[in-house]
């Protein structure tokens, strides 16, 4: 549509944004739709207009190197349909989630410390055990940290109800002294909470973001660098900003690999994986990270439907990394327009490997003379 109508793709996306009250494909009703305002704020903070003009000027002045820039607004639905269990004994925490680098243990420790009013040094996350956290669900969908934290809050409130009875006798006592008094009075200092969060319309809330990627492409070889990447991420009121920023950065880089270099090739006859190991399978490395990488969490945006007013983080930024594909398309289109081949629409196939990019540019010997 953008190609035929000669309109920027971002403009068409903005015209087709949901509005509050609309029905989504899954049947859920759109509410608290903040993507238009977030996108407008992002276009200002990323200096998109002047950078787009600079890209056009660069492309006019350079024959064999072209730049592309693209903005992708993102909506990602949070589905609370994963059962989670937590067992809380003293300040030793057993939960049903799996720590795989997403910071779930750090978030839960922070939540429990906040709810109980104790220092983080008193919190110990125990290994996941099916005996202690029976009937736990999968760790996935970017919602496990949130749901386990919700269960932890419930368990802590159960404990506080018991502990506060003893605390009233002498409110000046420290946490170790208070727990010792509870022990002497035979207070059961354990609590269990199970969360099986399901919402009537299957969507608990929506997450929003916008990502802008600017690349510079070598037309002859197909190699490119990402000069700058900006993302404005709606994380509600982040439970752990450092964890969430790290999650955004990791998801973006993972997405860059998914969309540009990580191609899986199989033997058409036997199905054998021919892209085994890093000799043939290319995940992003240090030199693939954007030269200028800017992650911003949206401020003053509490989520009334989330745990502690937060929103999920993990998978959504990966989706926004598709902006690198469209930025590459714009750079390729600039080259094709210059050689008189830009009138025809060309279909892209991801991942956008160096080989594919070079072929899309349709270089001919006559152009090199």
Descriptive account of the structure:
By secondary structure, the chain is an alpha/beta fold. It has 12 helices and 8 strands. The protein has helices at 2-5, 9-15, 35-45, 48-61, 104-116, 144-167, 175-184, 241-260, 277-280, 316-320, 323-338, 354-360, and strands at residues 65-78, 83-89, 92-95, 124-125, 190-196, 205-218, 224-233, 292-297. Helix 5 runs parallel beside helix 6 (144-167). The longest helix has 24 residues, at 144-167.
Order the strands across the largest sheet as they lie in space. 1-6-7-8
Distance between the termini: 35 Å
Query: What is the element string, with H for helices and E for strands?
Result: HHHHEEEHEHHEEEHHEHHH
Count of strand segments: 8
**Overall body shape:** elongated
The secondary-structure class comes to: alpha/beta
Keywords:
single chain; four-stranded mixed sheet; 12 helices
Quick structural summary:
With 369 residues, the protein is an alpha/beta fold. 37% of the residues lie in helices and 17% in strands.
Task: Give the topology, please.
Blueprint: H1 2-5, H2 9-15, H3 35-45, H4 48-61, E1 65-78, E2 83-89, E3 92-95, H5 104-116, E4 124-125, H6 144-167, H7 175-184, E5 190-196, E6 205-218, E7 224-233, H8 241-260, H9 277-280, E8 292-297, H10 316-320, H11 323-338, H12 354-360
Parallel strand pairs: 3-4, 7-8
Antiparallel strand pairs: 1-6, 2-3, 2-5, 6-7
Helix pairs in contact: 5-6
